[in-house]
Amino acid sequence: MRFFIPQDTTALACGAEAVARALQAAGVEPVRNGSRGMFWLEPLLEVETEQGRIAFGPVSSKDIPSILDALETEASSHDLYLGPVDQIAYLASQQRLTYARAGLGDPVCLNNYQALNGFNGLKKALTLTGQQIVDQVKDSGLRGRGGAAFPAGIKWQTVLNCNSEQKYIVCNADEGDSGTFADRLVMEADPYQLIEGMIIAGLAVGATQGYIYLRSEYPVAHKLLNIAIERAVEANFLGENIQGSGKTFHLEVRLGAGAYICGEETSLLESLEGKRGMVRAKPPLPAIEGLFGKPTVVNNVLTLAAISSILEQGAETYQNFGMGRSRGTLAIQLAGNIKCGGLIELAFGVTLREVVEDYGQGTYSGRPIRAIQVGGPLGAFLPESQWDTPMDYEAFAAIKAMIGHGGIVVFDDTADMAAQARFAMEFCVVESCGKCTPCRIGSVRGVEVIDRIVANEDRDNNLILLHDLCDTMEMGSLCAMGGMTPFPVRSALAHFPQDFTGQGLGDN
Questions:
Q1: How far, in Å, CA of 293 to CA of 299, rounded?
Q2: E strands along 342-406, which residues?
Q3: Is the CATH number of domain 322-412 3.30.70.2750?
Q4: What residues form DSSP beta bridges with 335?
């Protein structure tokens, strides 16, 4: 029997290290895998038996002796027995492409990655021209998973068409939105997939250097990425003359400095160049003048991680998932006041209600859900009347909301939505880079105006002022930081107006 206990950040926070030590003390050396994304079951102990892989969870160190005893007799007799891992309902009903390997083995074991079809996409890419690779990405319908949802193939085509001796691939791994952890899970559970996607991107557009811009709050991902890169170089999947092809691609990890604004691509590039993270005016686009003034592909972790599947299985296979212009799968992250928090990978088109009720199983508190925020701190607050909206970029845009990075934060009926609207403005105050006036000053005024409305000071005129302020920020800001801060504010005003009366939850 082989035992598996995750080493990713969430599992460690839940006590996985103590479980691993307890196993070692009992004479068992566990494989430190990545999480499956079922965070309410962490630490999740998996055991490979003759009948298949079974699970126990959530496990603590004190449970190890009794689990080992049960494995000697009847595993299903243990209170924490969950059955075969792949039959756990939460996991079994997903459509996993990007996370197909997550949790199956040691994430930095190159042999494990290759045994699970790793680097097959790269091997195919090495037989194609740059244009043929870009065409595959365009045909797949892949759109950026960082929030803007811009077609990845068009961005790559722009960089390919640029004449330059030096081009760059930059991975935006500065995952700062509230309720998001999909990027982290890729890097901690399957880092070679990201690396493979970046190499393929380099082959596609003619770039020989890549950078992963990683948020400094992810030390486990940082460690695993560096180990994986080192081993990929040793195995000649990175560096000079990749697999004897004559192609070159180098890759480095660079740590961010804790600024939310560096999730915006031009601010990220400024930081990567060693400057303060300030938003650049566009044009020129980074695809034409990006890092150090050179043509640059800037993509999110999930976008680049999807590339290996597209190359390996073909664009048509990827296209078969999803709906409308939203193709492939979406990494949905359930957080906030939720009973079964974690990561779900499903084709676009599942409704928000299905995700929260069927997978999340309602609130952790057991109280009714009042509002759901999708897309991070700049996403709209959605009332129950909008929960049947399919998770599709255009469908969400039609209700003045966004999918963004796929993060979902749930609030129960004790939440004060005026306080949440105020927090959106306050968040912008703290995180604005300060370059443009609508964002820098507008957010400060926004906090003040909301305070006056809740205090019932000249209420009608201040409501008009708040809407005017939101218009100015939305239309006049340089980037989405100021431009989208009005989304949560407007939605809270529209759907939960009673919270702005100064009487708060008493009116619910």
A1: 17
A2: 342-347, 369-374, 381-382
A3: no
A4: 409
Name the region of 258 (left: φ>0; alpha: ψ -120 to 50; beta: rest). Answer: left
For residue 123, count other CB atoms closer than 10 A to its CB. Answer: 14
Which amino acid, one-letter code, is at 275?
A: K
What's the topology of domain 2-90?
A: Glutaredoxin (3.40.30)
Q: What is the CATH number of domain 417-507?
A: 1.20.1440.230
Query: What is the tally of helices (H) and strands (E) in the chain?
Result: 21, 15
Residue range 202-214: mean pLDDT, rounded: 98
Residues 154-176: tens digit of each pLDDT: 999 999 999 999 999 999 999 98
The DSSP symbol for 247 reads: -
Q: Which residues fall within 8 angstroms of residue 76, CB to CB, at 6 or more apart?
A: 83
Q: Are 191 and 108 in contact (CB under 8 A)?
A: yes
pLDDT for the residue 507: 43
User: How far is the C-alpha of 363 from the C-alpha of 356, rounded, in Å?
Assistant: 9
Q: pLDDT tens across 425-444, in order? A: 999 999 999 999 999 999 99
Task: Work out the burial of residue 228: count CB atoms within 10 Å of its CB; fewer than 13 is exposed, 13-18 middle, 19 or more buried.
Answer: buried
> Which of these, 304, 259, 289, 272, lies nearest to 122 by C-alpha position?
304
CATH class of 110-319: alpha beta
Within the chain, all domains assigned CATH 3.40.50.11540 are found at 110-319
DSSP-derived letter for residue 124 is H
Q: Mean of the pLDDT values across residues 127-136?
A: 97
pTM check: above 0.70: yes
pLDDT in tens, 69-104: 999 999 999 999 999 999 999 999 999 999 999 999
**Residue count (the chain):** 508
Cβ contact 373:356 at 8 Å: no
Q: For the residues 218-242, what does the mean pLDDT come to? A: 97
Q: Directed axis angle between helix 16-25 and helix 64-72, to 10°? A: 60
